[in-house]
Write a sequence for this structure.
């Protein structure tokens, strides 16, 4: 529960709210209900927004927000203002879904990726609600990549204008930047494929572009070396991600956010990469995630394996997760997964904060007076 401060970020504690897509941004525009949801969870030391599309090409999830238009920027501004009024920093997760999308999101155009390698995993839910097979994506031409990089920069500019304290570059969970990093999905023979340096190039350029907008100390990067989500997992994952982590050390980033836990799907292609292995090659602040409880989080931080731990699912049904951790209070029952992505307040902003028996009695007595 120790605070953590660096440059422009002041975290009251080390419990971070992990990015979570919740599908409440009708027409990709953030709204008052979302502001309420984030404000309810603002005792977190830091909030990382749900994945936020950098451009129309990046869309791949129904009613997830974007940050390419003025209307979206204005919607986000209302979120950041309310979260800041509670003294909590909030960072925008910049998202391009790449091959995980479908032409139904993209006006009939094929999704783009590093290479024309099809997602063979679960089907994709398209805007009509139908589940469809993934399509073989179109490999981005090397002369399109500067435009993709500048889409990230433009998104960072709007994130800054909307009052976000920084951006997290989403290079995890099988989305576009992960598709470039991993040999499973990157079969390119140009400067963006083949060697480790080349597969890492696009991520490096995106960081450099965002660094023209925010100081590096306000830019985070998320990776998922062990994850199988979105049909990922490469034979050379250990070599790839230890190289990436080492390269990222050369930037003085806000943090490197690693899904080290296996509770979001493990590809089983070798021993999972641990936080302590990342620590050996990465010298900056490190955030662990996936399947943690408060004891394990405390342990990792006191062992110096991590500086911060983020929590996803526990924040869904416990808006006051930090207070529950601090006081050893019980958790709300987990809500139904059926409302993870459905519009409206149900399963979103309707989870109560903890009231112990004594305080409820006191309140009853006070209201009777
Ligand atoms: C409903 C839901 C939505 C998610 N959306 C995102 C997202 O937008 N971006 C992202 O990087 N991870 C996303 N994740 C993954 C979480 O950030 C986190 O890595 C995962 O839930 C594991 O952490 P946990 O065990 O604390 O829940 C999502 C997870 C859930 C359950």
């Amino acid at each position: 529960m120790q605070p953590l401060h660096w440059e422009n970020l002041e975290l009251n504690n080390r419990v971070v709210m992990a990015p979570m897509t919740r599908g409440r941004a009708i027409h990709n525009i953030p709204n008052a209900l979302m502001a309420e949801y984030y404000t309810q969870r603002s005792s977190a030391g830091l909030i990382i927004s749900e994945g936020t599309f950098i451009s129309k090409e990046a869309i791949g999830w129904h009613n997830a927000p974007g940050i390419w238009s003025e209307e979206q920027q204005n919607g986000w501004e209302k979120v950041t203002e309310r979260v800041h009024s509670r003294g909590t920093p909030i960072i925008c997760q910049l998202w391009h879904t790449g091959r995980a999308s479908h032409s139904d999101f993209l006006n009939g155009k094929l999704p783009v990726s590093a290479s024309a390698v099809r997602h063979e995993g679960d089907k994709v839910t398209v805007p009509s609600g139908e589940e469809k097979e993934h399509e073989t994506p179109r490999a981005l031409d090397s002369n399109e990549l500067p435009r993709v990089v500048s889409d990230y920069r433009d998104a960072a500019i709007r994130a800054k204008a909307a009052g976000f304290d920084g951006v997290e570059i989403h290079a995890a969970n099988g989305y576009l930047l992960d598709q470039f990093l991993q040999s499973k999905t990157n079969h390119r023979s140009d400067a963006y494929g083949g060697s480790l340096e080349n597969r890492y190039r696009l991520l490096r350029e995106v960081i450099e572009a965002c660094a023209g907008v925010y100081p590096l100390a306000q830019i985070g990067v998320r990776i998922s070396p062990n994850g199988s989500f979105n049909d990922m997992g490469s034979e050379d994952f250990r070599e790839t991600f230890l190289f990436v982590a080492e390269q990222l050390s050369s930037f003085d980033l806000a943090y490197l956010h690693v899904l080290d836990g296996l509770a979001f799907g493990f590809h089983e292609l070798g021993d999972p990469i641990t936080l302590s292995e990342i620590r050996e090659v990465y010298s900056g602040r490190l955030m662990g995630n996936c399947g943690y409880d408060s004891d394990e989080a405390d342990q990792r931080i006191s062992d110096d394996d991590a500086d911060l731990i983020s929590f996803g699912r526990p924040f869904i049904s416990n808006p006051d997760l930090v207070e529950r951790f601090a006081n050893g209070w019980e958790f709300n029952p987990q809500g139904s997964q059926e409302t993870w992505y459905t519009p409206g307040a149900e399963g979103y902003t309707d989870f109560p904060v903890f009231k112990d028996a004594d305080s409820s009695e006191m309140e009853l007595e006070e209201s009777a007076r």
Observations:
- The CA atoms of residues 2 and 13 lie 5 Å apart.
- The domain at 4-368 is CATH 3.20.20.70 (TIM Barrel).
- The pocket of flavin mononucleotide is lined by residues 18-21, 50-51, 93, 170, 172-173, 222, 259, 263-264, 289-292, 311-314, 340 (CB under 6 Å).
- The chain has one domain: 4-368.
